[in-house]
Amino acid sequence: MIEVENISKAYGETRAVQDVSLSVEAGELFGLIGPDGAGKTTLFKILVTLLLPDAGRATVAGRDVVKDFRALRSMVGYMPGRFSLYPDLSVEENLHFFATVFGTTIAANYNLIREIYVQLEPFKNRRAGALSGGMKQKLALCCALIHKPEVLFLDEPTTGVDAVSRKEFWEMLGSLKKRGLTILVSTPYMDEASLCDRIALMQTGKLLAIDTPSGVEKLFKKPLFAVKANDTYRLIQDLRQAPFTITCYAFGEFLHLTTRDGFSEQQIAHYLAERQHQAVEIRPIEAGIEDSFMDLMQHG
Amino acid sequence: MDKAVTTHKLTKKFGDFVATDEITFEVAQGEIFGFLGANGAGKTTAMRMLCGLLTPTSGEATVAGYDVYTQPEQIKQRIGYMSQRFSLYEDLTVRDNIRFYGGIYGLSRAELKTKSASIIRELGLDSVADALVESLPLGWKQRLAFSVALIHDPKVVFLDEPTGGVDPITRRQFWDKIYEAAHNGTTIFVTTHYMDEAEYCDRVSIMVDGRIKALDTPTELKRTYGVDSMDGVFQILARGTSGK
Asked: What's a Pfam family in this record (chain A) (predicted)?
């Protein structure tokens, strides 16, 4: 449904997207995972025909993003990272406006947005600018869907949104996927990656890896331990000095310690006991997506 | 024990709307205090009152020993503040930003010189000290903004979603800095949407609809709600609050 071949784009000296290739299947929920400056927004703008690539080619729903841009525009739904609805129009007026621009009506495609729009309906006469963050996001999604696109592009829909609203948003994406929509979504939150069918990890314009979430986790090959003790600050300092340590980072309640091959839990425990750490817990663990991402960033 | 922040039934109303509803808590000197809540729960309003930027409707609060009603100027001189949206001047150089903020907080010429040199050295910014801040990667800007927020050795530093948008390594390097500052006695008052970061705090409060619904160490909160992560705690407490 989306084919990207060797796409590059630079802004002056900054090489925003460098030789990126990927393909997304019809009906897939595909995640583009990476921090600010990874090139996610530039790639999105190229795919929704708002920006011309310097090199490479791409097709969406079988249409070339450069040559067939006019035909393509009515086939894609795009929710930009920045809130881009009309703040002075009401909820209903915004939706009506986007439906009209695409030559359709709210009624014609209401079934596609119903589940989301019912939550907005009590506020349909409120100005979009006066909505809360979570509500704006829902309205923007409705406006991106109202012309019944084949492919949905969501650029960081959950950035700056609280953990509860983020979860609700991903539940909405799950039900849109069930209707057969192809969805390309970008996010800086690693925990959202596991909710995608496949993900591409991106950093400073380049792809680090493309795989299923579990495939990405398996890219991590080094020994990994979760470690905890009662003085976290001192624990980090000491572990980073240890002869067996490659990296040591905070991961929620535990530290994640990557070691060289051939060191046991006992050796780590002994090292920490020598330094008077109390209530030490150490156990070997499987890497998560974030562990893999951090490893690929440094050595990929 | 010195208290860096105390509040008692602190309340702010905007017309009929109660943004912050009788919140009561204390933060110890040197503590990392996580201030969590859904969008619109009242965190920003509470923080603005504690920073001396907004007068409460009722209740009491002190920051660094000063009263928010009568001594807001003393508070402003003894706190640091950093957020993603407001931090550095993009069209000033690294060195000029440090000098500007140091000047605002009344550092002497000699202090400014020492501070600039130590911040630039510590952050490894020597090669870009005279470059415009806008040319720096986001992660560098965040660490610089944090150092600048600490330039006058404040008692308390308020961090409003300081780590948004950066890569996972940079995010952790930022937390290394937070740990270091707390270790040196600075009180950290931080909001975040990353639930793994909530685990890094000594204690966490969770606001829902203007009230503090829970306040404890991450370990105790997880035990109380019978879940294995702070995300689990947050989902239980903050879910089902309508209209957000």
From this structure: ABC_tran
